[in-house]
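Per your request, structure below.
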């Protein structure tokens, strides 16, 4: 085992869209962890809350009205690489996510990994 620099990425996805977002993220080929691929974690249930304001084009709810919906926390990590981070955020996760403004948290971390391929 070695300690490697990684990005840990966390977002919250409405339950009705969870499988399609998971599929998109796994299909990008970046979720490798040693000798495994498609490695991610998700937990449920949870509740997200938001109020769309003027200029919003909400997937759910109406401008000016507070909304709540069932969401799951989706979390995964990739090896630290700026191009890979750009790809997974801008070409995969954001387009696959149903929200106009998805909350996505990126943390730089170190993780144990075995053989890196």
């Amino acid at each position: 085992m070695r300690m490697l620099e990684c990005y840990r990425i966390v977002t919250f996805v409405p339950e009705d869209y969870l499988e399609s977002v998971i599929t998109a993220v796994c299909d990008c080929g970046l979720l490798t962890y040693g000798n495994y691929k498609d490695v991610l974690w998700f937990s449920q249930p949870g509740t997200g809350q938001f109020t769309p304001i003027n200029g919003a084009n909400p997937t759910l709810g109406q401008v000016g009205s507070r909304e709540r919906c069932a969401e799951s926390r989706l979390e995964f990590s990739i090896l630290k690489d700026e191009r890979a981070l750009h790809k997974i955020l801008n070409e995969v996760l954001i387009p696959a996510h149903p929200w106009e403004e998805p909350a996505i948290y990126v943390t730089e971390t170190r993780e144990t990994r075995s053989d890196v391929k």
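DSSP finds two helices and four strands in the chain.

Regards,
D.
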